Amino acid sequence: MGQNNEFGKEGEELAVAFLSKKGYQIIEQNYRYRKAEVDIIAKKDRVLAFVEVKSRRSNYTERIADTVSKKKIKLLVMAADHYLIANEVDLEARFDIITILKNKQTFELTHLEDAFYHF
Question: Comparing C-alpha atoms, which of 51, 36, 56 is closest to residue 96?
Fold first, then answer.
């Protein structure tokens, strides 16, 4: 596994731990449908969050959340729609982004709820 893949997996595990600590139940990790992948599907109360995790190193210059392209959003929506229908889910659904910025040995984590409305 390449260094970037390992760092991405580490970021996803940090995001899972963060969500769990905040009271979310982790339903799925790396849910795939066709060409789409949702990093984390998590439930809290009556909300099902489809979470995209973006991890970067400290020398990254643009806002991390801005790296989620319109194409990626379209794929996430397609996968979420499939998941909701296939599993007959009757919960409010939303799309979140968790960004993780690594500075040397520390991590700065930001959770953007309803993230697609922040673009």
Answer: 51
Q: Give how far the C-alpha of residue 48 lies from the chain's centroid of Cα atoms, to the nearest Å.
A: 12
Q: What does the alpha-carbon distance between residue 60 and residue 80 come to, in Å, rounded to a whole number?
A: 29
Tens of pLDDT, residue by residue over 30-87, are: 999 999 999 999 999 999 999 999 888 765 545 666 667 788 889 999 999 999 999 9
Per-residue exposure over 62-98, b if at least 16 CB sit within 10 Å of its own CB, e if not: eebbeebeeeeeebbeebbebbbeeeeeeeeebbbbb
Asked if residues 97 and 65 have their Cβ atoms less than 8 Å apart, the reply is: yes
Q: Which residue has the tokens 């849910």?
A: 31
- Contact by Cβ (8 Å): 99, 54: yes
Give the global pTM. Answer: 0.86
